[in-house]
């Protein structure tokens, strides 16, 4: 039986060293990409907004292009 990959079921083939734990290796099986909305909006944009707030206290002049 052949299992088809879905758009959210990426397989990342990045081997770790022998001392890498099983849980880390399992986490490495999922490839989070910056072009995926769930990753970009949920992680990248949040971090970017926090960095802008740190760099420009009290100012709302900057926003990410992806944020709208």
How would you explain this protein's 3D organization?
- The protein has helices spanning 22-27, 37-55.
- With 68 residues, it is mostly helical.
- It has a domain at 34-67.
- The radius of gyration is 17 Å and the shape is elongated.
- This is 2-aminoethylphosphonate--pyruvate transaminase.
The proportion of strand residues reads under 5%
The overall strand count is 0
Question: Number of helical runs?
Answer: 2
Q: What oligomeric state do these chains adopt? A: single chain
**Biggest sheet: strands, sense, closure?**
none
Which percent bin holds the helix content? Answer: 25-40%
Structure classification: mainly alpha
Report mean pLDDT, rounded to a whole number.
74
Spans of at least 5 consecutive residues whose pLDDT stays below 50 are none
Radius of gyration: 17 Å
Straight-line distance between termini: 43 Å
Query: What's the shape?
Result: elongated
N-to-C SSE string, H for helix and E for strand = HH
Enzyme class: transferase
Cofactor: pyridoxal 5'-phosphate
EC number: 2.6.1.37
GO molecular function: 2-aminoethylphosphonate-pyruvate transaminase activity
């Amino acid at each position: 039986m052949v299992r088809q990959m879905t758009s959210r079921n990426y397989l990342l083939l990045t081997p770790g060293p022998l001392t890498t734990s099983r849980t880390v290796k399992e986490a490495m099986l999922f490839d989070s990409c910056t072009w995926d909305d769930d990753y970009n909006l949920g992680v990248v944009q949040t971090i970017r907004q926090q960095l802008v707030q740190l760099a420009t206290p009290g100012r709302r002049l900057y926003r990410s292009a992806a944020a709208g």
